[in-house]
Amino acid sequence: xxxxxxxxxxxxxxxxxxxxxxxxxxxxxxxxxxxxxxxxxxxxxxxxxxxxxxxxxxxxxxxxxxxxxxxxxxxxxxxxxxxxxxxxxxxxxxxxxxxxxxxxxxxxxxxxxxxxxxxxxxxxxxxxxxxxxxxxxxxxxxxxxxxxxxxxxxxxxxxxxxxxxxxxxxxxxxxxxxxxxxxxxxxxxxxxxxxxxxxxxxxxxxxxxxxxxxxxxxxxxxxxxxxxxxxxxxxxxxxxxxxxxxxxxxxxxxxxxxxxxxxxxxxxxxxxxxxx
Length: 276
Known about the structure:
Layout: H1 3-9, H2 11-22, H3 25-28, H4 44-65, H5 67-72, H6 74-103, H7 112-133, H8 139-154, H9 166-195, H10 201-216, H11 221-239, H12 246-257, H13 262-275
Helix pairs in contact: 4-6, 6-7, 7-9, 10-11, 12-13
């Protein structure tokens, strides 16, 4: 048996080839991003991940120490507060992130699974937070448990999801639901790496205009979008140089509004400036 045949029969080799084909290293760990990622609307996804890391770290310490520690000691109060405010920040920035991507129609360009996994993360995080509130072991958690128990009974799941059972709620909160959240977050990030960050509507219009003749010539839409994004990034860098004149920058913008790609508009403006 040759080495090639052994590679074909090996499940690990087949898995590696499929993984590399689905998500090449240059997409998994990119060293550059399009220029439009500098906008603040793209920051809230990273802030959500940062808050989630703080939640997991502080929650792990609280789970190891137990309720008496976080209620009766100063250090326990501190970590309990860190955990609480990390959750508050997580939900705030995640809501901004979701609404921002909703108004940007982030499911464009084959990114439907990216949008759906982000929405599912938010939905799974809600019961994760609820089970955390009822696991505090204080009067707040008792009141929340009794009120929420009526809601669970009303929808018919109170016998399976008993909010008055501390052991069950604690297991859901520190193991099952966080595991689900982290797993979906990993899938979400990998999908973002695979499909790329959704571009603004104006840039997508320019890419579509540039893609029409290239697709007709047989080039794949993904390659056209990648080339147009690279041209947009290089054109933006060129127009921000100190030696560019305002007239040249205005010519680039005018050409882009007329339907030309930024790279072609920049080249035409450069030719006009040279002849002048």
